[in-house]
Write a structure and sequence with these properties.
- The protein has 558 residues and is mainly β.
- It has four domains: 22-171, Distorted Sandwich (Glucose Permease (Domain IIA)); 182-349, no CATH class; 366-465, Chondroitinase Ac, Chain A, domain 3; 471-557, Immunoglobulin-like (Sandwich), CATH 2.60.40.1220.
- The protein contains four helices and 45 strands.
- The protein is globular and about 90 Å long.
C-alpha cells in the first residue's frame, strides 16, 4: 500500500510540475467549463480532446493558445466540421474543431482553395510559417459544424511529431475541479491468461455511496470455483464517471489503481492516446454493457493485443486465485486534480473444482485476435487480418456468404468483403451492411468480376445497385418562387442509396459555393451583397455511384 501512495503522489506531483511549466492562453474568452473531458468512452473511440461549453451559442472568438503557424485546415460536413491545427515551437499542436467561421488569413486561404477546387469540402496544408499566428490572436469563431450535436469548442493538444492526442487538462488551463470520481458498479469475469473473457461467466454488483464511503452489498463478491482455470483467473471492471465544477455533465475516468491483498496489480492514467490505437476503447471497456446500457465499465485488466499506452507496468491485471481462497480488493479512482474515491471489498472463492477449460473454443471456425482468417465460396470471399476482433469468437460457417457474426460485435482492424458481380461492371454497385440500426453503405472497387470493400461493421451484408440520383428540393422558398429577397437560399439534399458525393451550384453557368450541413442534409447559398437581376440557378448533385440529379430554376434577385 505504501508503494501505491508513493505512485499516486508522484502522479499528482508530475501534473503540478507540468502545469507550472505551461502558461497557455485560453482558447476562449469566456470561463472554461467542460461538457466532456479527455479519454471519455465513446462508440469505437476515446474522446481525443476536451469539449468547452459555449453557452449554447456560436460565434465566440477563438484564440491561439501560443504563437506558431497554421499547419492544417479542413472543411467537412462530417466529423470535426471546420477545424484548424496550429503547430507551436514547443513541439505541440493545438486543434480547434466545429468552427462556424474562419477569420483573417485562414479565411482567405480557405475561400481561395474552395474556389479553385470548386468544392465546399477542402483540406489544406499551408507551408511552414505561411500563416503565422501570435499568442492570443483570433483566427476563427466557435460553432457547431460537422458532427457536433450542440454548439461547443472541441479542443485538442497533440504531440506534433507523433500526432498522439495528449490530455489538455495536464497543461494548466483554468478549469475548476473539486469533485471526486463517482463509483457506480463492479463486474467480475472469468478470464484466460491473455485477458479473454469466458462467455457466460461474469458477475455484477452495484456500488453504493454511504455515510462512510463506497460499498457493495455484503462487502463481498461470491465467486464460483469453476470461474478459475489452471492458467487463467479473474478480472475486474468498474463503472466510473467523473464530473467537474460548473456543469452536471458526466465526464470520463482519468486514472485508477487495483490493489489485491496490499499489492498493486493494475493501474491506468489517460494522459496520451495514439489515434491508431483509439479503437481499443472497445477492449478497454465492457463493450456489451456500454453498447446496450451505456454503462462505463473500465476494465482493470487487458488483453495481450491491447497496445494502449494508458496502463502502468504492474501487469495485465489477471487475478490468480484458488478455490476456497479469500482476497482483499481495493480500488482507487482519481482525476487530474488529485480528487479520488475508493472502495474495499472481498472476493470469496467457493470451494470446489476449477474448470478444465483453458481455451475459449475448440472449433477451428473462429476469429482470433492473433490469427488471420480467410473464407472463400463461389459467391463470396472474406479476408480477416490479425486483430480484426478483440477476443476469440466463433463463426457460423453456413452463413458467411451473407452474414458475418452479429452487428453488436465490434470490429478492431477492418476486414475485406468480396462478392461476385453478375452483370455489367458499371460503377453502380455498393455493399450494404445491416448494423441493427441504420444500415451502412460501403463504396466498392472492382477486381476482375468481384466487388470489393473494406468494412468496419459485422452483420448481414449484401451487394446492392444504386441507379437513382439524389433528391434536391428547396426549404426556405418554393419551386414556384420567382422573386428572391432573402440573405440565404436553402435546399435539402438526400440520397436513398450509397450517399451524397458531390454538390455544385451554378448561377448563370458560374460556380458558387454551397455549404453542406450533414446533420439536417441542408445545402446553403449565402447570397452576396448587391446580388440582383434575373438569373438561372442550377444545382447538380451526385452520389457515390455516379448518379446525377439536376435542379434548375430562373429567379429574380431583389
Amino acid at each position: 500500500m505504501k508503494n501505491l501512495l508513493i505512485s499516486l503522489s508522484f502522479a499528482v506531483i508530475s501534473v503540478s510540475n507540468l502545469n507550472a511549466q505551461t502558461n497557455y492562453h485560453s482558447p476562449l474568452g469566456i470561463p472554461l467549463v467542460l461538457s466532456s473531458n479527455f479519454g471519455e468512452l465513446r462508440p469505437n473511440h476515446f474522446h481525443m480532446g476536451v469539449d468547452f461549453k459555449t453557452n449554447l451559442k456560436t460565434g465566440y472568438r477563438l484564440y491561439a493558445i501560443e504563437e506558431g503557424f497554421v499547419s492544417r485546415i479542413k472543411v467537412s460536413p462530417y466529423g470535426y466540421g471546420k477545424v484548424v491545427y496550429i503547430d507551436h515551437p514547443n513541439g505541440m499542436t493545438s486543434v480547434y474543431a466545429h468552427i462556424s467561421e474562419f477569420k483573417g488569413a485562414v479565411d482567405s486561404i480557405v475561400k481561395l482553395t474552395q474556389e479553385k477546387e470548386q468544392n465546399f469540402e477542402v483540406e489544406i496544408f499551408p507551408k511552414k510559417d505561411e500563416i503565422k499566428v501570435e499568442r492570443g490572436e483570433v483566427f476563427a469563431l466557435s460553432g457547431n459544424s460537422g458532427s457536433s450535436t450542440a454548439p461547443h469548442l472541441h479542443f485538442e493538444i497533440r504531440e506534433t511529431i507523433t500526432e498522439h492526442a495528449l490530455n489538455p487538462l495536464m497543461f494548466g488551463f483554468d478549469i475548476a475541479d473539486n469533485k471526486e470520481p463517482e463509483l457506480r458498479g463492479v463486474k467480475l469475469y472469468s478470464i484466460t491468461k491473455n485477458g479473454y473473457r469466458f462467455p457466460g461467466k461474469e458477475l455484477t454488483k452495484l456500488i453504493v455511496k454511504g455515510k462512510y464511503g463506497y460499498y457493495i452489498g455484503g462487502d463481498a463478491i461470491e465467486v464460483p470455483a469453476n470461474y478459475l482455470t489452471q492458467s487463467g483467473g479473474l478480472g475486474l471492471a468498474f463503472d466510473v464517471i467523473d464530473r467537474l465544477d460548473g456543469a452536471s455533465n458526466q465526464c470520463g475516468l482519468y486514472g485508477s489503481y487495483l490493489i489485491i491483498d496490499g499489492d498493486t496489480l493494475f493501474s491506468q492514467a489517460i494522459d496520451r492516446i495514439p489515434f491508431e490505437s483509439t479503437r481499443y476503447v472497445n477492449c478497454h471497456k465492457d463493450y456489451e454493457a456500454y453498447n446496450s446500457l451505456r454503462r462505463k465499465y473500465h476494465k482493470s485488466f487487458k488483453t495481450t493485443e491491447n497496445d494502449l499506452p494508458i496502463y502502468g507496468s504492474y501487469g495485465n491485471g489477471l487475478i490468480n486465485a484458488k478455490p476456497g481462497q479469500e482476497l482483499n480488493v481495493e480500488y482507487i479512482a482519481f482525476d487530474v486534480k488529485g480528487n479520488q474515491s475508493s472502495i474495499k471489498f472481498t472476493l470469496k472463492i467457493a470451494a470446489g473444482e476449477m474448470s478444465n477449460e483453458d481455451v475459449l473454443f475448440t472449433t477451428k471456425n473462429q476469429l482470433h485476435p492473433q490469427e488471420e482468417y480467410t473464407y472463400s465460396s463461389e459467391s463470396a470471399q472474406l479476408e480477416f487480418p490479425k486483430k480484426s476482433v478483440y477476443e476469440p469468437i466463433e463463426l457460423n460457417w453456413a452463413k458467411l456468404d451473407y452474414s458475418i457474426l452479429s452487428p453488436s460485435t465490434p470490429v478492431n482492424v477492418p476486414f475485406t468483403i468480396k462478392c461476385k458481380v453478375k452483370g455489367e461492371l458499371d460503377g453502380k454497385h455498393y455493399f450494404e451492411v445491416a448494423t441493427g440500426g441504420s444500415n451502412r453503405a460501403l463504396e466498392i472497387k472492382y477486381e476482375d468480376n468481384w466487388a470489393v470493400a473494406e468494412s468496419k461493421y459485422y452483420g448481414p451484408y449484401s451487394l446492392k445497385r444504386d441507379e437513382t440520383g439524389p433528391t434536391v428540393y428547396p426549404v426556405n422558398f418554393t419551386n414556384s418562387t420567382t422573386f428572391i429577397s432573402k440573405s440565404t437560399l436553402v435546399w435539402k439534399i438526400t440520397d436513398r442509396g450509397i450517399g451524397i458525393k458531390d454538390y455544385d451550384l451554378f448561377i448563370d453557368d458560374q460556380w458558387h459555393l454551397l455549404e453542406y450541413e450533414s446533420k439536417g442534409d441542408y445545402i446553403t447559398f449565402s447570397i452576396p451583397a448587391n446580388f440582383s437581376g434575373t438569373k438561372n440557378i442550377r444545382i447538380i448533385a451526385t452520389d457515390a455511384c455516379g448518379n446525377d440529379t439536376k435542379w434548375e430554376k430562373e429567379v429574380t434577385f431583389k
